[in-house]
Structure prediction request, 464 residues.
Amino acid sequence: PIQSPTGDSAVIGALYVKSDIEQKYTEISNTALIFFTASMIAGLISIVVALLVARSITKPIKEMQKQAVRIAQGDYSEKVEVHGHDELSQLAETFNKLSDRIEDAQDTMEAERNRLDSVLTHMTDGVIATDRRGKVITINEMALSLLDVTSESAIGQSILTLLELDEEYTLRKLLETPEEILINRSKSEADEDRMTLRSDFAMIRRESGFISGLVVVLHDVTEQEKTAEERRHFVSNVSHELRTPLTSVRSYLEALEEGAWQDKKIAPDFIRVTLGETDRMIRMINDLLNLSRMDSGAQQMDLELVNFNELVDYILDRFDMMVTSQEKKYRIIREFTERDLWVEIDTDKIMQVIDNIMNNAIKYSPDGGKIEVHLMETHNNIVLGISDEGLGIPKKDLEKVFERFYRVDKARARKQGGTGLGLAISKEVMKAHQGQIWVESVEGKGSTFYISLPYEPYEEDIWE
Ligand code: ADP
Prediction:
């Protein structure tokens, strides 16, 4: 409406406007479409960005989780990748450092264990460790060989059963025993296989005082024990051997003192026996001194190059000469190699050995017996064999006749004036010459004693 400007609000006319708004609608709808599309794109971009951001956070965490699994399995070869300087990167870096530290610690521990293993393996003592119930958890090579068991059978076994102590000891008693324990074991019935082991026990204690196990150190003292036993045996033998002739000398002297000296018939006999026994004692003491010198290595070897055939001939000639003056007759038969055998020996000592074997051959043979002496050469030894037709030596005594004071028939040997040391001395002499002495015998038929000496055949033409 158009109103009059005078103010009486009278309408004086009307204005009619007409317009097409279709276009406006189109514009509005276009704008809405643009808006919608832009929103969609923005939404998509946001999702992509969100995904990227999430990935950048979870990837290092995932990597660290994988690395943790690898470390748990003992694989330290890979590292977590570090990008940037944010907190996660710092965490990854710390993680890598941690992994390095664990690897170093593991290597040090491994090296330490290897060192311990090699010390245990190369120890000359046997070492066994147990848990607190006394079950074996570690055993070294030496202990396995000393006890003659396998590692599989030993591990997990009770230490008392393993050492065959279960009858005498309980675990508690074992720990309360302050000294070492000597264990005697034998691999078989044979006496040589007997073994003495010294075992020292110690507890493994933690700092808290809790006992977590036991360590046993085994030491093979078979040789020491054997030597100590031999020494005891030897002292008792010497005392016995000297007491017997002394007692008999004393009883003869007593009889003489009580008046037998006036009896012209028996007095000379008594005095002869007394002198004989005294001589035997002197011989025995000389033999003992000889042996003791050889044992201590104080005996000097006076080596010279000798024609062995001539030496044996010389000794046998002497025995041939003696036969006429002796009660017991014998015949000596010689069978020597044709080649002269030159050896480096201590002549006096080897003569003593041959004398001793010859004397025994005569002593333990019947009257008129034949003694065969063979001198042979093998590839790198010379062997002298002396066979008699005497009473022979039982099989069980064959090795023992070389022991000090051992006699097959004590009474008979003593009556013959033997000291029981001749063959023991011979054995030592042969040992000092890197040679050997042994015997073969058939009881009732005879014996053959052999000695052998190392020998290098010389080329004859080097002397020409
Ligand atoms: P002995 O002084 O008693 O002869 P030996 O050491 O020379 O001491 O000999 C030890 C033992 O070996 C003798 O007691 C004897 O029993 C035995 N024996 C040594 N030689 C012979 C032999 N030819 N025949 C038989 N037995 C022997």
Remarks:
- The chain has four domains: 26-114, 123-220, 226-296, 303-454.
- The first strand starts at residue 2 and ends at 3.
- The domain at 303-454 is CATH 3.30.565.10 (Heat Shock Protein 90).
- The pocket of adenosine-5'-diphosphate is lined by residues 356, 360-361, 364, 388, 390-391, 393, 401, 406-409, 413, 418-424, 447 (CB under 6 Å).
